[in-house]
Known about the structure:
Chain B is α/β, with parallel strands linked by helices.
Amino acid sequence: TGCGKKTAAADTGVTKVVVGTGNAYAPYCYLDEKGDLAGYEYEVLKAVDELLPQYEFEYQTSDFANVLISLDAGKIDLAAHQYEWNKERDDKYLFGKEPYTTYVTYLAVTGDRTDIKSLDDLKGRKVKSSTGSNSVYILENYNKDHPDNPIKIDYVDNSTDEETVTGLVNGVWDATILTKRDTEKLNQNYGGGRDVLKVTGEPVQSSSTYFVFAKDNTRLQEAVDGAVKQLKESGKLAQISKDVIGGDYTESE
Amino acid sequence: MIEVKNVKKAFGKQQVLKDVSVEVEDGQVVVVLGPSGSGKTTLLRCINFLENADSGQLAIGDTCVDLKKATKKQILEIRRKTAFVFQNYNLFANKTALENVIEGLVTARHIPREAAIKRGKEALDWVGLGEKYHCYPCNLSGGQQQRVGIARAFVLNPEVILFDEPTSALDPELVGETLDIIKKVAGRGITMIVVTHEMSFAQDVANKVIFMDEGIVVEEGSPEEIFSNPKEERTRQFLSRIISLDSNYSI
Amino acid sequence: MIEVKNVKKAFGKQQVLKDVSVEVEDGQVVVVLGPSGSGKTTLLRCINFLENADSGQLAIGDTCVDLKKATKKQILEIRRKTAFVFQNYNLFANKTALENVIEGLVTARHIPREAAIKRGKEALDWVGLGEKYHCYPCNLSGGQQQRVGIARAFVLNPEVILFDEPTSALDPELVGETLDIIKKVAGRGITMIVVTHEMSFAQDVANKVIFMDEGIVVEEGSPEEIFSNPKEERTRQFLSRIISLDSNYSI
Amino acid sequence: MDKLFGWERFFENIPKILPYLSVTFQIVVYATGFGVLLAAFIVLAELKKIPVLNPFFKVYVSFMRGTPMLVQLMIIYYGIPALIDPVFGTNINRGFSAVTFAYITFILNQGAFLSAIFYGAITSIPYGQTEAGFSVGLTELQTFRRILLPQMVRIALPPFGSDLVGLFQNSSLVFLIGVTDIMGRAKSIGAATKHVLEAYVFVVIIYIVISLTIRLLFYYLNTKLEYGREGVE
Amino acid sequence: MNFNTAHFYESFLYGIKYFPNTLRLVFIPLAIGLTLGTVIALARVYKVPVLCKLLGIFVTVYQGVPIVVALMIYNLVFMLKFNDLAGFLHIKTKAADVDNIWVGIFALSLTAVCSISEAIRGALLSIDKGQDEAGYSVGLTKVQTIRRIIIPQMIPAAIPTLINHVVGLIKASSVVMAIGIIEIVAGATIPSSRTYSFFEGYVAAAVIYWAFTIMIEYLAKVLRRHTGRFRRNPYD
Ligand SMILES: Nc1ncnc2c1ncn2[C@@H]1O[C@H](COP(=O)(O)OP(=O)(O)OP(=O)(O)O)[C@@H](O)[C@H]1O
Ligand SMILES: Nc1ncnc2c1ncn2[C@@H]1O[C@H](COP(=O)(O)OP(=O)(O)OP(=O)(O)O)[C@@H](O)[C@H]1O
Ligand SMILES: [Mg+2]
Ligand SMILES: [Mg+2]
């Protein structure tokens, strides 16, 4: 479709790029206490913008699903919301080639629990996940292969971190799928000094996150990929990750 | 027999009934006359506890109650001894003519449905609505609705029937028929209090006429006394207006 | 002068008016009698375009229109030459008695508000409501509402007034007063068509009486002719019921 | 675990949330103002049985009643530019801000709901009132304006009040397309500070205060419009 | 923008699959709302002392609370306190064993009770006082009059407003996905999380909703014609 065309400011030669990102997903993309956009995505994008004089980024926020629909509808040129790659998504959108965060996820359970080590231990048990996340994809695939006693998937949207912790502690859910860094974050915020949650067993999945572009917009994709690569090489990306997330999650964990 | 004593009733500051007493013997018909706003409707409503009187006593048959302090049980007892014909009919909108008439019999008197239907049909035939058993009130003309209201009261066979202008919506032909019916019922020994503007009715069937004005009984007596020889100036004045009107076309 | 010719009107399959014609001279009063359901109300409503007649012509003064094909402008013109007194009053619920009366003057006739108020107050005084200028309809008794409706029609000083049972809610005293008013207005040369059940009124003020039944004019003539010497069996039958009723109390 | 609710956090949130009240109010004012006009037009088409328009509005109202507002918001936010831009060669897709599309959605939605309320109110006025207007020589328009409208307002007021209270709450949907209102602000404070309950409680208090104010105001208006009736609660 | 019909169809099927959940989320609160709503409306119209004031305040205040927030708070309380409560009552059930759709049903029921009680109150107020008086005058008790005369007349009068609230309830039922209950919207967007075709998911949900409301509106029309057959014009 013709919607994805960039608006050009002809005289200066600088092209405006509308970047879409989320508004309630700390620490990646959220509104800070003043109500301004903040988070890892924003910092990385700002750094990318600096490296690309021919582009000028402008930011627009909405929720996870709407960022993608906006991209599809041509309201934005670039989507950033910790998007993970899979084949079907690749059919619909143009994914960047250069990952900027790794995403290694584990099963997370309460600190005192020892009975759960792998997905097989979760048969017939209740796992919290949320629509749109890659963990749903993993769990559904698992259920497809093991139809006899499937894992009960609880799709919880717009849940707060408080709910996640409370639900696990009270046994509403047996487990959820988290990264190590998210688990630490939750312990820090709600543990009161204790490790209420822990990750367990082998990684459920290792994936990375990419920026997403409209299908025909390879020029922008290549430019951004190049900039991300530069940031990695210069160590700037790792620095941002440490500053914002609290650890270097850009290459491996 | 029905006896009402010293009824008082005020709406806000307006004293609508100022110490009204009425006594009616078994099987007698009392007609209440009076100008608009004199308290006639309010009196009937107090007797049936549709309005809370400020004070007064009521006796129907051997039941004796205080109008102000009656218990729920007493009120129900009185209501089951009386029936009310409303000026604006007040038929049950969700029930057909026949259902309107049998509702009291079946639900309040616990008469078997079959028997109630039989009596209900008789009552409707009697008021000339033999063909309208299954019509809802909204499909009946004003006059027909008023007749259903009359049948609904009669069928209960109560000790006392209270009528509030039972012929206001009827054309002259129907007024005549309705008055005939009331006369017949009077013959059965049912006591009746009738508020009406139909002088001919008062003359024809009343055993006693009561003339009210501004919340008091101005005068009472036999129809002959009241019409031919009213004692009070106010009564005379009221009647003179009417008679001058009607005398025009006595052919 | 008002002339209605060959009016026909059916509701569904029921032919309510079957070729009715009525002619009234300037300043004359015509009374329409007839049993319930004979089409009296429907006739008045057709004249005022509140009901769409199936066919017929209407002439008021020098305005001549086809009842079926009248344009909006013609309809408005006819309505501004006539006034209607409704059986169930139809007062504007959101306006006081005085506002009801002046609404037509101010909004339709563009008479200055001051002058309209003066005329409105006179009209209300005239029907005995001098103390009720600022009451809303729901605070007026039925009889008072009916009188506001009458004042609302009179104040327009139209060529023709159509009355649909203008005294049904009034006690005998007020009936008398209202009829006096209508008589006075007749004296002013306003043409009137009055549907009523009040025989005394027909006798008293009518120049002509029309008796309708089942959608046709059964008989018409002077009051004397109709009441003393009706030609048609149906008329005789209707009147006999009424007269037997009333003769009882001609004192 | 950390305390679920803290008064300190609650009071800290107040100055952060309050400024966004104006966003909420703007949506409500636009939606109500233009919604009333649209509803009046729909009712007119219904009453006059205007061909084409009347059936069109029937489907339109049914759609607005029958589908979630979230979907309406999406269809308008993404669908309208897709329809209009290719035809007129415009670029409202990017030219109009998200909040503009939010206004359009809420106006269209309110128009549909209010039309149902108004239609119900008008048809519940006895037809005799219209006839009486005609009989004293008023035109249709005059009868509507001077007789029907004042009576209709009284009947429509209570459901209109409920609708308005609901509108305040529904307006929080706009956060999904990136417009921050009080509810969205509460949510983002939750994301930024890890504590959302205090912010939500404060927003609920705002909603309750607004709702009570509306009810009180409408109750007062209603007593002004009783035309002599005895007050009903 | 491109609309992927295959993804739309898949979402549609997913939405239908979770339709029974929406039915539960709508009809259980509706039943509770009708019962309690009628009781509250009667208590307020017939001015039961004290109770009528308290209920009036409760209904007015509660209607000011957005359902999303109410839901979130109930869910938190449920997760935090259920086990303690169950222990206190010596019930073996744990929070984990309780399907949290019941939290959603609870929240929606409270909302339904409030709005339905308002609709019914309006209908009751529109019934002429003469109907009660006529009931008393033929010797019926207050309860008999309400049951046999007032309620049958209230039903057709309340249906139009009631349907507005039922339609509202159907749509409100989608907010429960915030606490992890899958109904039509959440169901229809399950495939979307895999394919990132969210728009198609939402449109699929809308189609199901619309069809469902049209059906409900039709049923209401039939019901109104049936219960209101004593009225002159059952349509308006
Ligand atoms: N509910 C009420 N509230 C206030 N005043 C009332 C109420 N009911 C009646 N009144 C007043 O009480 C007085 C008597 O009314 P009532 O209805 O008993 O008169 P009536 O004799 O029946 O008159 P009519 O012949 O017009 O029916 C009137 O002045 C009326 O305005
Ligand atoms: N809108 C209507 N729809 C169907 N039938 C109607 C309508 N209006 C009147 N009718 C019927 O037309 C007939 C004549 O009615 P109309 O009101 O003209 O009678 P009327 O002579 O005024 O009687 P009344 O003395 O009872 O007022 C009646 O049988 C009535 O049922
Ligand atoms: Mg009276
Ligand atoms: Mg008539």
